[in-house]
Design goal:
This protein is mostly beta strands. It contains 1 helix and 29 strands. Strand 23 and strand 24 form a beta hairpin. The longest helix is centred in the N-terminal third of the chain and has 15 residues.
Length: 390
């Protein structure tokens, strides 16, 4: 064996990991499958995940655990439902996706914004940001529990190792790190931007990118230190960044922008100035398909959904809702066949066929439907929002 130096050890480690992955059950590439280049190695030569984070099932695809039918044993017996927070009605409409009917209406706190699956998949948290509470819902029974006092919970995320819940306190200008079960405050991180609201984590979980809606800025936050390590103003006058989503290969973050009418394409590692990809008026929500090939992009201002192809790096289709609408936030069904979206300004929910773009149903709900959650969904754990699973 050749002499090993300290400098050569990281490269040997990378080689051995690659060899083990190839010989120990690494997924074979099927004809027509999306071939994704491997994640960039860190300076050590081997990507090192956030301590305590479950390792990725496939280093080429952060969403490999989200395939159709791959339900965790935790959620396997939960009834399939669509939970719709109605910000103007202070309720959650519960839809049976098999019948497209509202089967229950749950009273919650003031201005519910999002329904968020917990990291351990056992609870749905309703974010009542002007009522300053989180309402827990048991997805096994659909029963709401006692509200928990949390100030300004506009949105809610969980660190990939499950150690912290992260409350996006939009008007308070804070990121509040809390116990993921009791919601007790562990650390408060003030921010200088305005309107923190959406986020997503890097593939290794070591940082996350946050959008600041009202000041048109992006933040980069170190997960372990819980501190802001980067901040930039988007290069568009009046920018209003919204949803944030990581690409399957872990290389790129996409940030929807409601005023710039498109997605910002960002290198999260380098955190350089992003480029704008126009999609449609009022670009708002981003949802990855079950096969990780495409992303559905809602254009709230024009009643359409753009389809982005990751491998081809371009938009391939645009689906327009018949009679218009305001497609906002939502999620993909467990089998990947239906995209569910709230109609923010039309008091309705849309069910859209992900193969044809056909509208399958338009369901009346309460006033101002916003961050609906389709549940259960495949995945081992939740990063929060309306259901970001890995």
């Amino acid at each position: 064996m050749p002499h090993l130096t300290q400098r050569s050890l990281p490269f040997l480690a990378a080689f051995l990991l690659a060899a083990l992955g190839a010989g120990c059950g690494a997924p074979a590439e099927k004809e027509g499958a999306v071939v994704v280049p491997p994640l960039r190695a860190r300076d050590s030569g081997v990507p090192v995940g956030l301590p305590g984070m479950p390792p990725l099932l496939d280093h080429r695809d952060v969403y490999a655990a989200d395939r159709p039918g791959r339900l965790s044993p935790v959620v396997r017996d939960f009834p399939s439902r669509v939970y719709v927070p109605n910000t103007g009605s202070n309720t959650v409409s519960v839809i049976d996706p098999a019948t497209y009917k509202v089967v229950e209406t749950i009273p919650v706190g003031v201005r519910p914004q999002h329904v968020v699956p917990s990291w351990d998949l056992k609870t749905l948290w309703v974010n009542n940001n002007r009522g300053h509470t989180l309402t827990p819902i048991d997805p096994a029974t659909g029963t709401a529990g006692r509200p928990v006092e949390v100030h300004d919970p506009y949105n809610l995320y969980f660190t990939p190792n499950g150690r912290y819940a992260v409350v996006m306190a939009s008007l308070d200008r804070e990121l509040v790190f809390r116990d993921p079960h009791t919601m007790r405050t562990l650390k408060t991180t003030p921010v200088t931007c305005y309107g923190v609201n959406h986020a997503d984590f890097s593939a290794d979980g070591r940082y996350f990118i946050v959008s600041c809606e009202f000041s048109g800025e992006l933040l980069k936050v170190d997960t372990e230190s819980m501190e802001v390590v980067g901040q930039q103003k988007l290069p568009y006058g009046g920018a209003m960044p919204q949803d944030v989503k990581l690409s399957p290969d872990g290389r790129t973050f996409y940030i929807a922008d409601m005023v710039a009418d498109g997605m910002w394409v960002l290198d999260g590692d380098r955190f350089t100035t992003p480029n704008l990809l126009p999609t449609g008026k009022g670009c708002h929500g981003l949802y990855v398909s079950r096969d990780s090939r495409e992303m559905y992009v809602t254009n709230r201002g024009e009643g359409s959904v753009s389809v982005f192809d990751f491998a081809r790096d371009r938009l391939t289709r645009k689906w327009r809702l018949p009679n218009g609408g305001s497609p906002d936030m939502g999620g993909v069904s467990a089998d990947g066949r239906v995209l569910w979206l709230s109609g923010r300004y039309h008091s309705e929910v849309y069910a859209i066929d992900t193969t044809t773009g056909e509208q399958l149903a338009r369901i009346p709900v309460g006033s101002g439907p916003h961050g609906l959650a389709v549940y259960p969904q495949p995945g081992r754990y939740s990063l929060g929002h309306t259901g970001v699973f890995r």
